[in-house]
């Protein structure tokens, strides 16, 4: 009987082993020899999904997502709820169909808080901003409260004066260019003109001749329509900044009826998760698409974790700086309603209630939720002593130690392997930035059934978050801390010299100096490492 029981145990073990997914035996991608940068231009299809490509086979610093899917064939998975804390999401976009989270405890449209969580009819998420679209920057809000003699007020006032003067100078430049364009349109007798048209144009004014030559150089590299599109974009940015972000008389919070300094009130806003107008949800819809837009349907881009993500829209980021209260409550809402990954493509450099956000990050850690956040788009060194006081949110609370192990900070890559692979706008820092992922010219969903190329660390963050979703979908027993470690440790180390930052502050340095890991996110390697970690092999 003893021998029989041993054989029975062995047979049972074999049976149980056969029921589980087989161990992944593939070797991780390594860079054994120097990479030759891709010389040919990307095709249109490659441009729309370059973040899925592979550094070794395509010589593009993508995340090897296509190769990762080869490893995941025929393996069991779970759906992962992803909290998109952002400007709102157009949940009716057809390329997000079937990928929107639904609160099954809530009865849609009955005007009752069925699940008694404080938010009525929160079927697909919550809008903590209500009808707010625009907001001040945080240092402007600090100034508006009056001089309390604090160092923060002094810094805020100095920042306001600097930013206001710079914006007025930019406005003068753009107004000048617009007037010059009108002048040349009148002289040429046409609204659209080329560099060749200007070459043939004779002008009597000496100062106008110099401007003409500058404009010829510009139009030699782009069309007049493209030039004017940039001028119009700059005008829109300047006007928004002056009318709302820096306007001391503007109060966006007034229409919400909530006191942003009072933590006791939490049930405000509404359930219109894209906000008052779908167009205002451009940013959040794009972020959601990077993670969850349908793969392989021939339209739009390909979501990193399309079949495995359920998008929960939590609107807390206006045009302007977000409030700490809204962010803290948004994180808690996502956590309490089942999110296992939260993407935060936002940030600022002043914070009046950072403790509320730190508490929310720690709360997410207690509930095993990973937070992935953008490093910021100011081309700055975030290291202490690097010229920046702090960027919020972060997981260090302005100290040398992390407050939790569930927070990833992501820098942005371009599709060009080599000296220019780090986006000029991307913040960086060996202490504050964890890893880099694709963030330039990313093609994804935008409101009203449309698509656009957008760029920013805002796009790099959901690319990394998408990899986190894949890991949590196939390896649900791994903790948020373990998923963070997998993404950081499995990234491809890049040992080349790159340019970082833009303008006068640009530097030339080893890529390894720009983040804690010196690596770029790699989904293929992440799945291999997650498989090993799930089996206790490391």
TrEMBL record:
Entry EC no(s): 3.4.-.-
UniProt keywords, alphabetically: Hydrolase, Protease, Serine protease, Signal
Domain Peptidase S8/S53: residue ranges: 78-491
Keyword Signal among record annotations: yes
GO molecular function, one term: hydrolase activity
Entry annotation: catalytic residues: 86, 283, 458
Record's signal peptide: 1-26
Enzyme class at the top of the EC tree: hydrolase
InterPro entries, sorted: Pept_S8_subtilisin_bacteroid, Peptidase_S8/S53_dom, Peptidase_S8/S53_dom_sf, Peptidase_S8/S53_subtilisin, Peptidase_S8_Asp-AS, Peptidase_S8_Ser-AS, Peptidase_S8_subtilisin-rel, Protease_P7-like_dom
PROSITE patterns, per database record: PROKAR_LIPOPROTEIN, SUBTILASE, SUBTILASE_ASP, SUBTILASE_SER
The keyword Nucleotidyltransferase appears for this protein: no
Origin superkingdom: Bacteria
Family affiliation: Belongs to the peptidase S8 family.
Stated name of the protein: S8 family peptidase
Organism of provenance: Flavobacterium rhizosphaerae
